[in-house]
Amino acid sequence: MKRTSAVLTVGLLVSGLMAVPAVASSVTTDPLAATEATAVEVAMFWLGDGSANLRNATPYNVQTVAYKIFPAGGGTIPDTKPGFVSPVLPTASGEENAKTSTTWGKVFFIGADGLPHWCTGTAVQSQYRNLVATAAHCVYDTQRSDGALDKWVFVPGYADGTTPWGLYVGKKSFAHYDFTIYDDYDRDYAFVTVYSGVVPSASGGLTEFGRLVDNVGGQGLTWNQPLNSSVDVVGYPAGPHPDGTQPYTGETLESSSGRTSRAMAPSLKAEEFTAVESPFTGEGSLGSSWFFRYNKSSRMGYLNGITASVADTDGNLRYDTSLSPYFDGELAQIHSAASASWSGSILPA
To answer: Which of 92, 150, 165, 208 has its Cβ near the most Cβ atoms within 10 Å?
Structure first.
């Protein structure tokens, strides 16, 4: 797909957001399903035949493990003051209990092997209430062309082929130039705008389901937080440990907690990773959310990391560490650009 790269100066202020410093940031954008007609085809690909392609999808196994992790002294230096985007609860009409919906789910796409795969994704607050956060290499095809992965959708609360809160077709991706051009995993994050959700209709077509964040709520966002912060990691781990044990199925949402530190992963060109102790395996947990000030009652917090890879740091053949890019002011710039991008519906009014 054709890519448009631009150096943007962003100072956007939207509802619930702090003003992002107006500094230059490299933002790469890509079309996913650029037209409503294409988006309908994508939705039918996943929902047709009893959602067979959703059911047959397997956890993405590309770049799940980082080897030779080293502690990085001195700590990551914030490039601006800490900033926040406030989380929001669902507002859709008829929602009786906000706790029944979930901002977490799975992003589905076609890999370089031509088969359906999935990673973890999260609904995030934005101006048009249409944004999903995940790892950049769960949006871009790093094995083949570095273009966007095909037939990209998000299903919050996905379970066994069902779409309880709708299926949302990706319209446009926003990522960092350094990742899409140089495969720099220090920038392995992406935000994707999605069309309004759809569900299968009784006639075999599609029915409109409304905007993502209206339906499930949107997590907040924070950047330039100090290291040694406490975070909760939330996602859908599925793969085995190196010793062959497989404690997770990928069917249920899992969480772990720990404190952040700085790490280097030379195999991923990552010099400023954030690390946290976590038993998550790599497959399935790519794109998992890291939350600062997570409230277990409301199930809301501030996104402060996204799992890019995992590692076995003590050599006992069990993964013990999750790794994320450090969320700094450039991450905030990319979120601001994505937040200002409207998507709309794939169905006629």
So the answer is: 165
On whether the pTM is more than 0.85, the answer is yes
Alpha helices in the chain (DSSP H): 36-56, 177-182, 212-216, 329-339
Digit-coded pLDDT (tens) for 97-130:
444 679 999 999 999 999 999 999 999 999 999 9
pLDDT at 269: 85
DSSP per position, 69-82: -EE-TT-PPPSS--
CA–CA separation, 197 and 96 (whole Å):
19
HSE-up of 193 (CA within 13 Å, CB side)? 26
Q: Give the contacts of 66 (CB within 8 A, at least 6 positions apart).
A: 265, 267, 268, 270, 273, 309, 310, 311, 323
Neighbour count for residue 349 (Cβ, 10 Å): 5
Residues 6+ positions from 196 with CB-CB distance below 8 Å: 130, 168, 208, 209, 210, 211, 212, 343, 344, 345, 346
336 contacts 123 by C-beta, under 8 angstroms: no
* Token pair recorded at residue 71: 């502690």
Q: Average pLDDT for residues 249-275, to the nearest whole number?
A: 93
Q: Domain ranges in the chain?
A: 4-339
Higher pLDDT, 161 or 13: 161
C-beta of residue 61 within 8 angstroms of C-beta of residue 307: no
